[in-house]
Design brief:
With 76 residues, the chain is mainly alpha-helical. The chain contains 2 helices and no strands.
Length: 76
């Protein structure tokens, strides 16, 4: 998936992108069913913050303890 400059700017601003209808209901259920197992892992890519830290207004990603993982390959 190649993101447009507008989508990249939105991701930098909001910290996420929303793609309604990207997955079928069955695919969504499969993903939801996998969440508990994924959260139970103690991997470097699975960072959950314990305290809310104020974010810089220009990039919500400054709140994370480490850079966001590039699971979908959306960053070059």
């Amino acid at each position: 998936m190649k993101l447009s400059p507008e989508q990249l700017a939105q991701f930098d601003h909001d910290g996420y992108l929303f793609f309604p209808g990207l997955f079928t209901p069955e695919e969504t259920q499969t993903l939801n069913d996998a969440v508990p197992d994924l959260y139970s892992r103690r991997e470097d890519y699975n960072v959950r913050e314990k305290a809310r830290t104020p974010c810089a207004p220009t990039s919500p990603r400054t709140c994370t303890a480490s850079p966001l993982p590039n699971w979908a390959g959306i960053r070059a």
